[in-house]
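Trying the structure run again after the queue cleared.
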Amino acid sequence: PALDGTLFAFDVRDGQDPWKVGGIEARLQAPPIVQDSTLHLVDQAGNVTAIDLVARSVLWTSKAVPAGRARPVYQGGHLVFLSVTGEVAGLDTARRGATVVRFSVPGSFSAPPIPVSAQDLIFCSEAGLVMRVNRVLGQVVWTLDLQKTLKAPGVLRGNQLFVSPQKDTLIGIDVEAGVRTYHWVHTPAATRAPLSGSDRIYFVHGSELTAFGPGTDGYRLAWTFLAESPILAGPVVQGDALYLGDEKGNLYRLAGNE
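Done. Tokens:
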């Protein structure tokens, strides 16, 4: 989505622009969420727009989301939004965006929540407080204070959540017990993970994308990529390729094993 409210769809094979949808009133700040043939957008004012990707038309809009660059995730038929100030709202997509849950979590947030079960989400505050919360009841299951700044979204692998406070640091958390299981810091002498392989995890730190891969004794830094300006969209994995968008409007296609 563009900041002026126009949605562009690109063909991933050649980067062309086959169609676009306009008329969305406010600035779009969060990446879209696609579920089946419906795309959901949230703008800076807290409006949600559902677009039929087949008909290329707007299905419905809702104004029930907390304002302030709320980031959406899809879980069990609901769109769950988290604002930078910790306001959470759940919208039922089958009921044209009707609000079905609303609560707050403590802290400031740059990353969206992460679904870990049918009803539970992981929230990672910028101050390093990691929380597992039941979104139906709005109750905290466990908390873990990493005392590290967290701005890059975490990555879930099985029962482990990986977070990267800095581009050369990786922390693993058991999402069932809420305990730290892994802490690795890259040094110039450290062996990098092999370039080949599909089990990659990616983190964005400003203009830099870092890729971690499994080594002989856990995940290790595999490679880094520096964009021309801060990365605002992605990475999106499509087959063996990665797609990124930066602040200057550049779209990057990267090979995942390079």
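The two ends are 28 Å apart (CA to CA). Worth checking whether this holds up in the mutant runs.
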